[in-house]
């Protein structure tokens, strides 16, 4: 049995050509499945699908991340007319079940290195889809199964990597096994790196030197996308995020990327983020500006005055507004949102839609940080946002931090405006 904590040594990849062919699924006899179903106390339900979690790692809190993946997969299938999914770390197989049933995938390959989950995964899949030509279960190390599929020229439309810790070691093999225009759904739970507490580690895994920033959880997403942009460039591809999602339980960072060939002169949105410890302003800048600029808000220069730089990272929009709109429409069509249903999912997708404004720079400003610096009371967030928008600035909430604002208005102007709003008596 393999070690199962997402920490296979890099020396295992690339695999030599000629690795054994994948096994196909074994069929469990009917009465055995029934026995598992009746007697197992680990029964769960997600979006009406009943399944067994056995001894596999399963978190109910991750269901929103799965909802988002299913919506994006379904939007893809509707536009391309087909969907083949490789669920590289499937656990009990809930994602595979949902890709088959809800996203109506034509075919799903459900893989988990732990072969003790075989009966569990097969049992769950059989319950949602009796046609066994539509799914296969296998138990390989993820890099191995991805590389084998690539060598067989058997490409997938969506590859889901739901790893523990960092996903970076699976990026290359996943991109090779992905069809052009296909989707890569990545998960990362490495909160130490995004928090700037392990800059050398983030440099190794993502090629980004990350320092502590007040919007660390957004940095986690930008680090993940930036690492994928770099890996894709090595292979001659380009990836862009369709959505990015930070979830509090964990922390958990998830991004859905679309992979294509780069267009000539395409802006890779791959650069640096500076944060000024003196005034709290943050800004993105390009490679050409690296080392030449300081804080554009209070004019402090260099790290001596506290202008710290992290990167290279993804500095473009976290989501595609077109894609989020399509996901929202689909969620409404399925009754997942609207008419009082799915309030949290609807709120999340709407926040993502607002956040996808390309004018918004990376990062967010926590109102309590701003008011602490300025030694003032803060105005209501809604009022501040509305006023900024009326003045022609881009302004949005962040799906990551509830009392934070994203805006292209500099810190000095924002603080002055907030002070003015507080001094206006409210009716
Ligand atoms: C986070 S859990 C997956 C949860 C599942 N996707 C879900 O949504 O419920 C990670 C799974 O990856 C498997 N795993 C860990 N390292 C692996 C590797 N290198 N290759 C394949 N599977 C691996 C573990 O056995 C575990 O079941
Ligand atoms: Zn400054």
From TrEMBL:
It comes from Linum trigynum. Belongs to the class I-like SAM-binding methyltransferase superfamily. Trm1 family. SUPFAM superfamilies: S-adenosyl-L-methionine-dependent methyltransferases. InterPro entries: SAM-dependent_MTases_sf, Trm1, tRNA_met_Trm1_C. GO terms for biological process: tRNA N2-guanine methylation. Its EC number is 2.1.1.216. Transmembrane segments: none annotated. The lineage of its organism: Eukaryota, Viridiplantae, Streptophyta, Embryophyta, Tracheophyta. GO terms for cellular component: nucleus. It catalyses: guanosine(26) in tRNA + 2 S-adenosyl-L-methionine = N(2)-dimethylguanosine(26) in tRNA + 2 S-adenosyl-L-homocysteine + 2 H(+). Keywords: Methyltransferase, RNA-binding, S-adenosyl-L-methionine, Transferase, tRNA processing, tRNA-binding. The keyword Metal-binding does not apply. PANTHER family: N 2 ,N 2 -DIMETHYLGUANOSINE TRNA METHYLTRANSFERASE, TRNA (GUANINE(26)-N(2))-DIMETHYLTRANSFERASE. This is tRNA (guanine(26)-N(2))-dimethyltransferase. The keyword Methyltransferase applies. One of its GO terms (molecular function) is tRNA binding.
């Amino acid at each position: 049995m393999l070690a199962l904590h997402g920490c296979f040594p890099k020396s295992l990849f690339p695999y030599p050509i000629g690795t054994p062919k994948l096994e196909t699924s074994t069929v469990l006899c009917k009465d055995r499945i029934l026995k598992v179903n009746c007697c197992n106390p680990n029964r769960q339900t997600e979006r009406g699908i009943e399944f067994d979690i056995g001894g596999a790692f399963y978190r109910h809190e991750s269901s929103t991340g799965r909802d988002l993946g299913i919506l994006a997969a379904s939007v893809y299938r509707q536009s391309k007319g087909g969907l083949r999914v490789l669920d590289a770390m499937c656990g009990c197989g809930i994602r595979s079940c949902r890709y088959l049933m809800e996203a109506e995938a034509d075919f799903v390959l459900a893989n988990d290195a732990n072969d003790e989950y075989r009966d569990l995964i097969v049992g769950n899949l059989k319950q949602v889809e009796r046609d066994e030509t539509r799914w296969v279960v296998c138990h390989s190390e993820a890099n191995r199964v991805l590389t084998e599929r690539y060598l067989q020229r058997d490409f997938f439309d969506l590859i889901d990597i739901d790893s523990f810790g960092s996903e970076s070691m699976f990026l290359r093999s996943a991109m090779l096994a992905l069809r052009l225009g296909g989707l890569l759904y990545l998960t990362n739970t490495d909160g130490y790196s995004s928090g700037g507490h392990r800059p050398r580690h983030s440099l190794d895994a993502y090629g980004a030197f990350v320092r502590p920033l007040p919007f660390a959880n957004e940095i986690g997403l930008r680090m993940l996308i930036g690492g994928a942009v770099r890996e894709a460039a090595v292979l001659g591809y380009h990836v862009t995020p369709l959505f990015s999602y930070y979830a509090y339980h964990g922390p958990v960072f998830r991004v859905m990327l679309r992979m294509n060939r780069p267009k000539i002169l395409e802006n890779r949105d791959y650069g640096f983020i500076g944060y000024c410890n003196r005034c709290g302003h943050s800004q993105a800048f390009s490679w050409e500006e690296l080392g030449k600029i300081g804080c554009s808000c209070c004019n402090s220069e260099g790290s001596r005055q506290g202008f710290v730089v992290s990167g290279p990272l993804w500095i473009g929009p976290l989501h595609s507004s077109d894609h989020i709109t399509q996901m929202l429409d689909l969620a409404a069509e399925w009754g997942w949102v609207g008419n009082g249903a799915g309030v949290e999912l609807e709120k999340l997708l709407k926040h993502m839609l607002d956040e996808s404004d390309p004018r918004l720079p990376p990062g967010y400003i926590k109102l309590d940080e701003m008011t602490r610096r300025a030694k003032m009371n803060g105005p209501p967030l809604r009022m501040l946002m509305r006023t900024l928008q009326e003045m022609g600035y881009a302004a949005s909430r962040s799906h990551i931090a509830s009392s934070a604002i994203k805006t292209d208005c500099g810190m000095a102007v924002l603080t002055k405006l907030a002070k003015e709003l507080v001094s206006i008596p409210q009716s």
